[in-house]
Structure formats: C-alpha cells, structure tokens
Amino acid sequence: PMGVELKRNIKQLFWRSIVQQRDNIVGIDTAILMHPRVWEASGHVENFTDPLRECSTCKKRFRTDALATEKNKEGLCPSCNAPLGETRQFNLLMETSLGAVENDKQKVYLRGEITQGVHVNFKQVMQSSRVTIPFGVAQIGKAFRNEITPGQLSFRSREFEQMELQFYIQPNKKEATRWFDYWKQERMSWYQSLGLSKKLLRFREHKPNERAHYAQSACDIEFKLGNEWKEMEGIHNRGDWDLRRHQEYSGEDMRYFDPESKERYIPWVIETSGGVDRAALFFLASAYNEEKTDKEIRIVLKLHPQLAPYKVAIFPLLSNKPELVTLARSVYDDLKVMWMVDWDDRGNIGKRYRYQDEAGTPYCITVDFDSLNQNDVTVRNRDTMKQERVLISELPDYLTNKLNTSNNVLI
User: 61: which strand partners?
Assistant: First the structure.
C-alpha cells in the first residue's frame, strides 16, 4: 500500500512539473494495444532487440552486455560454467492476439514503449489543443518488455510504468541542441529537487554505437545504486524518425504548418523517458538511513515530504482512554481531507515513532492529556526528532507550510 502511494506521488509531481505548470505541454492517455503496423513503422519489430547468449547445458539466457567478468568473457555460463552459445538478437516485444474466432485471430503487440501512441495521435492533439510549435505531449502509462533477465529488485521488469514527454520542435540542429540541453537540465533538477543527492546522479552521453535506432543523440540520467551506475531516465533527440515513419506507413500527412514561416515540415522530437518504478527504487535507496544510538539502530526513511506515502501520522497517547481517542479521531478526520494521514493507536509511543520513521512519515502528531485542556498537540519532526506544541486550530496552516517548504535536497 505505501509503495502505491509513493508511485502515485511521483506521477503527480511529474505531471505537475511537466504539464500543470507549463502552457505549451498537454497530456494524453493512449492505447496499450495498437495496430501491429504501428510497431513496424516505429522500427520496433525489426530493431527492438537485446543481444543474448544461451547456455548449451542449463539453457539459461543472459544479456550479452551483462556478461562483464573475465570468466564470462571466456564464454562460460555464470550458473554452471558450461560454454555459452553465440550472441544472437532477442526481440523484446510481447505478443498477444485479438479476435473472437480462434482461427482468425490477429497477432498484436503489447506496447514496448508508450511513445508511439503519442506520435500516431500527433494531428489530433494539434487540432484539439490548438498548440503551436514548440509544444509537448506528456503521458504516464504501462509498457511491457519480454526481458531476458528481469530482476535487480524492480530495476528491470517485464511490466512497468513510464513517464514521458515528447516535445516537438522546428527541424534544425540548433533548435534540437538547445531543447535537448534544456530538458536534460530540467529533468536533472527535478530529481534533485525531490531529494536525490548530487553525488549519486550523473549524465552519461551515449556513444553512436549505443544509440537506439531512432536517436540522433542520447543521454541518460544515471543513479549510483550501491557500486553501480544505473539508468534512471533517458533524454533523446529522435529527429523526425517517428512522424516520418508513421507518415510513410499510414499515408497520413504528418507535417506541421508553421503560421509564421508559412512552411510545412515534419517536426523533430526531443524526448524525456523515465521509469516510475525505477524512480521509486532510487528514491527509496537514497532516502534510507541508519542512525546508531547507544541502545539501538534507528532506521529512518528520509523521503522528501512530497514523496512520503503518509504526510502525517496521528496518535492518541493511550488507546484505552476514550477522551484521547475521540479528540485524536477529530484531528485525523480534519487532516485526512488534505493529505494522506495514518492512524496508529497500537504499542507504546516510542515504537509508533520508530514505525513511522521507517515508513518515511515526515510528522507525527500525539494527542495527550494536555491536549484536552489546551487544545494543542505534540508535533514531532521525523528527521530531527524535535517536538513542539501546536494549537489544533493551527495544524492545517502549520503542516501546509512545513510540507511545502521542506528542503530535503542532499548535497
């Protein structure tokens, strides 16, 4: 349940940053299943592959680029030490079928990326939104890949969520370079603003032989997970690949009419493509802290308040005192219309604090016997463990200020 809330917060913050706060970007939600010609046009049927090697004995398969040790370079299986077969290409598109009659079903693909649904709807977006270049279309949605070796926690999976922006620009290298650099910095700043340490982030430019079939240039934002740098988000100059190919395969005119220059042209695309699941994994890894005390190790998840699954937890000091429970419930009911709020009346107060620390809850509110007479509560800060008394009537303003202005960016 808390993972769902974390992912929901990531998606909402992405949407707020990319769509809500900008006047030249709109949102869309496209289909998972599309005509197979879409994937032929995009080049995925032909080029959406990973290199793999298969063990001749145990039949396990491994991504060639993941075989990095000296033993593997000699062509030996990491599992059983038997010889590995030759490298071959493995298509990542997942297949299914459509149709009511068994012998007349059509092969279709689960989308391997959410990008193509945006491009095939390019003209509809222009007509319905009255946007002019430069403009962008954002989308969050599920994608599916027949991964050779899923795993590494949630880093590589066969079903995952992407959050993307397709930004359409004039077709020239100067504009492409300007917007490519702009979106690189924007996306890096977004991750840092939500608490990821600068020391754990870097840009990595793709060499020409690393780039996807559609990319004129590409750069990854990488996160250092343990001792390895892992891709978190990609920024790509896709040129006119997508719109041009869909125009060729569909016969639909995908050109844009520029009202200023009076020219028609196929726009170029700058793409930002990040994984919701990967972002959640990296935010958790970055936020995890162990603080040693004389008696124990305190585990605290120092998530940015806007990412935290629960913003506030409400405790009655004693669960067997109806007057405390009643007042605490009143506070809980008032605050839960504004934020995700947790209720906890089990165990001693210290254990409840520790549980909320591990869950990443920024503030805990305790209703005690003084609250009955003074109409105030104890508010405890997760990171500093400092406590202060706050009037119940002032809690909404107090928490709004704290949650919106907290600076959890790590240097």
Answer: 54
Q: What's the pTM?
A: 0.86
Q: How many angstroms separate the CA atoms of 313 and 342, rounded? A: 4
Q: How do the pLDDT tens digits run along the chain, 411 residues long?
A: 999 999 999 999 999 999 999 999 999 999 999 888 888 898 877 766 666 677 878 877 676 666 765 445 567 887 787 877 777 666 778 888 887 777 777 888 899 899 999 999 999 999 999 899 999 999 999 999 887 666 666 677 888 999 999 999 999 999 999 999 999 999 999 999 999 999 999 999 999 988 888 899 999 999 999 899 999 999 999 999 999 999 999 999 999 999 989 999 999 999 999 999 999 999 999 999 998 887 889 999 999 999 999 999 999 999 999 999 999 999 999 999 999 999 999 999 999 999 999 999 999 999 999 999 999 999 999 999 999 999 999 999 999 999 986 544 433
- Same domain, yes or no, for 248 and 340? no
- Domain boundaries, position 310: 299-405
C-alpha 88, offset from chain centre: 31
Out of 260, 284, 308, pick the residue that ends a domain: 284
Residue 127 phi, psi dihedral angles, 5° rounding: -70, -40
Q: What is the CATH number of the domain that holds 201?
A: 3.30.930.10
In a domain, 70, yes or no: no
Regarding whether 327 and 259 lie in a shared domain, the answer is no
- Give the DSSP letter string of 319-359: TT-HHHHHHHHHHHHHHTTTS-EEE--SS-HHHHHHHHHHH
